[in-house]
TrEMBL record:
Name of the protein described by the UniProt record: Family 10 glycosylhydrolase
InterPro entries (alphabetical): Divisome_Glycosyl_Hydrolase, GH, GHL10
GO MF annotation terms: hydrolase activity
Residue span, Glycosyl hydrolase-like domain: 497-762
Keywords: Hydrolase, Signal
Pfam families on file: GHL10
Amino acid sequence: MLSVWNICSRAYGASNDESGADGLLLQSRAYPGFDVPPDSPKAGRSYKDMLPPRPESKRPPVPGKHEAATVNESVYGPHVKLPDGTFLPVAGVDQTREQNKLSVFTNTYGTYTTSFDTNTIELILTGGIVADKVSVGTKGTYIPRNGYVLSGSGNVKGLLQALNIGDSVQTVHMQIPVLPEKYVRIGDLVLPIDKVNGTRYEGEAVLYHSSYGTKTRTNAWGLEATILNGMIVSVRDMRMDGSGQFADNNSPIPPEGYVLSVQSLNPCYQELLKRAVPGTAVIIELENDYLYQASTIGFDAFNPRKREDNPAGWDDGNRKPLPGMRGAEQFIVYDSGYGSSSGTNPWGSEVVVNAAGKIIGIGGNNRSIPAGGYVLSGHGSYRTWLTRYAAIGARVVVNRAEKQVMILWTPQSLLDKAQITAAKAELALEESKRLFLDVPYDKLRKQIDTVKKLREEAGRHLSEKGIVGLAQILKDLDRTATSVRSMNVESRSVENRGIWLRPKENSIEEVRQAMDKIEGAHINQVFVETFWNGYTIFPTKNKITMHNPVYNGFDVLAAYLAEGKKRGIEIHAWVENFFAGGPEPGPVIKNKPEWSLLSRKGLTYQEDVSSGFRYYYINPALNEVHDFLINVYQEILSSYDVDGLHLDYARYPGSGDYTNDFGYDLYTRGLFKKRYGADPLTLKPGDKLWEEWVTMRVGFVNKFVLRLTDEVKKIKPGVKVTAAVWPEYELAREDVLQDSMNWVANNRIDNVYPMSYKLDTSLVLEDARRTFELVKNKAYVTIGVGSFIHLTKEAFVDQIVSSHVLGISGSAIFEYESFIEGGYDKETAVGVYRQQAIVPDASPAHSLVRILQDQKSKINRIYVPLGGMNHTAEKWYSKQLDEVVQKLGGDKKPKLNPGRIKEIKKSLLRVIDTIQQNRGMHEEVKARALYDLRGALQIVEVTISKMGQKM
């Protein structure tokens, strides 16, 4: 008898490209947990508009769902429909096999079918796809938890034997029970768990235990059930507090129990309101692992070359193909007959498949096509499908006749992943040696050997004992294989490693827990959101704003500063300037409605058309607005020992198509009329005075930033002023009226953070390169990368490492919750952030000493042992490094002053010049040494710029 559960499920929503940065269903939303305007890089800007629209969008199928087979009225009872359209009757479900008949076994039957002889064959199916064929039945067949086993003997054995792995089989008049990988069961209600210990987004169910913290830190819009000893002990749902406001759920998490937190748009929510009452029994399952997964999708074209091959991949306006002939919302397959690479643009994602049909590479675009293999290239929802199902080691079947691609994951896939990863790691290790890179060679070799050993162990277990007990071995294997890839990158000891964080804590203990995670990730700068939505995070004396009531009077800024000082981690006050509230007006707008920024249509807000949310700005043209903001920041600097003031939203809202851009209040229009004799309300892009109108509004923002930086340095000369900026500098000036390079040119910014939250590494590299070129040595450049846009771990690390090659001063991560919850911290802590790093401008003299001492360490650990430097060169180079350290005043108490820094610059330039002529160094060693020395020289030159010296 089948057990049929009442399982709540959500429809397959929009792709990440269409739903905002966090991939939330059917709503463009802010970065985790709170709202930002849709034009912000933090909203996960979509690049689908870079391509012409596709007339008809073909969405990927709903994962785990399959269209019902079309049957005629004479088909009764349980059947399966084969790929050729044949209907076969099923004699029994979860019952004893019958000779010459078909049987179906579901997970209700158990973990395995009973043993069988050579007269029987069994197929493992998941997602309606044949995932494996089992003909040796001494142990029976593993029944997947997300599928079933189809068993046939005697006369029907041949029919099943003729099916291939990857074929689709549909069930008719049968319900196959499939339980989620993680779920909570209350009676017959099964609630899928979206995540354990993470931010609760729209429609999600999250299970919290005490390792997350003391409370869930959730907002009011949901239900929370506290669970102890398998029983609900208390419930919180949407309710009003004593002041008439909705009270946050924010349940305490018991040390030995759980909190089940369900957002109000979850399909189970209404049913839970009835069932979740104290005293109700609950079953929690967190390890219902899917060892088999499969999905099939249609593709648009195979090796398209002409317009006829793929009209949507042709740019009719310019009469030429789009790159790779991949259009918007398309899925293209390429093999080596197409060329050496796919030739696609950066706006999608690709998967590389070798000649054996195994996935060997994931992410990026314009990927090289292996001989005998494929590149699968997807844009829009197809990129989402690839992200969901593609994994290293998975099997790919391309059916050109049906124009379909199938991706299949089995236990063997993880063994293949380990083999592929180990082989790649060994090649990469040898390449690192050839390049004399500073990576942990001995640890890497041990990890590679461990991967091989675990793979052998898993293989033996699979062949001797089957699936039972294999899951933990496979998890250990996967974790070790992943760490091997992560470790083989250099980790710099002098660089910026920043992270943006919105504080949600209400106690010092919660702040400590967050800072412990940040410290464990080897981050050295935290940008604590200090002025957001028009509120402060500290008790303020300013009467126009107020201390955000979400903190219940707790001074969270003071707490972060105290914990940062203990750990040697810089704490910067991140302030949002002209952005004053959303989706509701904050206190500044409420207290000073006349400060509201007005749009061309007379609106006081910017609206996100996909969600209806409204975002409010205050007017950059008003001197009293400047006065107010500077007063708030003066209070921060006077009352708190922050390491820096980090500027964000020093701009106008996005102009969109310019039919509703901003700055059309009477005061601003009057200023323009007085100067130019025209009302800007009558202007549009291309008009004679349009550039003057743009320049005037840009000037208001520039005026504020220049005045602010002057005031900041008067109060606290040593404090840093940094800025998060749009990296498309020409577009930023026209669209959001931000000219950040003006601030840099006026030497007002200590560190520029271009917000390069993009999927493709090439785009991030271009942003870093362009910023580096524009800034020169006026400031440091730290690239902003986005963990919140669901990058693969490999792509995330690649964006950081590739940017480092350019010589920039570091990386900053947007943002804390997605970084920790996505597991990116585990990846970086063993790899690119492996070494503890000091901030370059915390003490430039100490930073220089650290770089020079690292050079000496590399000589002894890498360059000489690997044959990259002879004895004469070793002695000479070591002496040069020692001399520069001595000129700094020694390694204990180095100092820089205007006179000394000139000598340091001359010495570094001399060493750089001489190294290039040195015959005792391998060319690759020269390249490594020059990279580090030029990094030291950059610190010198930025320091000179800040000292006001001209060299």
